[in-house]
Amino acid sequence: MKIENAVVFVTGANRGLGLEFAKQALALGAKKVYAGSRDPSKVTLPGVIPVKLDVNNAQDVAAAAELAGDVTLLINNAGIASVSEGLTRPGSADLLRKTLETNLFGVLAMTQAFAPVLGRNGGGALLNVLSIVSWVNSPVIPEYSITKSAAWSLTNGVRHELRKQNTQVVGLHAGYIDTDLTSGFDVEKTAPSDVVRQAYAAIEAGELEVSVDEKTRAVKQALTQGVYLIDPSTQS
Ligand SMILES: NC(=O)c1ccc[n+]([C@@H]2O[C@H](COP(=O)([O-])OP(=O)(O)OC[C@H]3O[C@@H](n4cnc5c(N)ncnc54)[C@H](OP(=O)(O)O)[C@@H]3O)[C@@H](O)[C@H]2O)c1
């Protein structure tokens, strides 16, 4: 599908990658861009329609689908991450539950609410923002990694189900991106503009999965040959 004339809904659109998704959708000629945010007053980008949306709040999700009944492209971008004390430490289960709530169940809730909308509007597309750690567990953020693996599997499952209504379901995988989420990490990062440019190009090309940087592409390639091991000295 083309972004030009699409009606786009972006979750977590007030900052970071979500803001960039909204900006580039406008630049590519989207007919309308809904910008979901837990606090809509934080959506300051001219030209978008702010929508109050906490993806963990069932009422918000239902109201968003009601309001935005003309959506043809859903970008499930909202996500959280926390540095971990380790999977074998007592706090791990709580951190995993909390992170799953947004990164997995939030995506599922939005998908369930918007699948009929996309179907009614001809199929359209749905893109889930996943990660390099969907494929390899990071020792710094192991709980987050588990949530992104689960969200990858969710993406693959939803793709099967929505094929019959002609919805293109895309998984986006990335290593470090230069947003607030990674401000504490002194590592090489991809610019959000580069990530989003590749994401929209993949949607327009009809692709089902996009890896936006060399490292991510290398990890996927390595998985076909065995287990990919993180270098403990560089955590990458
Ligand atoms: N940065 C990276 O290195 C990287 C790499 C791979 C994948 N990703 C993924 O990219 C996506 C965007 O991350 P980012 O880097 O842009 O992070 P970010 O700068 O921290 O922004 C996260 C966005 O998600 C929103 N959000 C969090 N919980 C939410 C909820 N329950 N309901 C609605 N919105 C919620 C935040 O809203 P508030 O402003 O209200 O907190 C914010 O708008 C995430 O799915 C993340 O996992 C990031």
TrEMBL record:
Keywords: Oxidoreductase
Leader sequence residues: none
PROSITE patterns with a match to the protein in the record: ADH_SHORT
InterPro entries documented for this protein: NAD(P)-bd_dom_sf, Sc_DH/Rdtase_CS, SDR_fam
UniProt entry tagged with the keyword Oxidoreductase: yes
Protein's UniProt keywords contain Oxidoreductase: yes
A Pfam family recorded for this sequence: adh_short
Family membership: Belongs to the short-chain dehydrogenases/reductases (SDR) family.
Protein name per the record: Short-chain dehydrogenase
Source organism per UniProt: Pandoraea capi
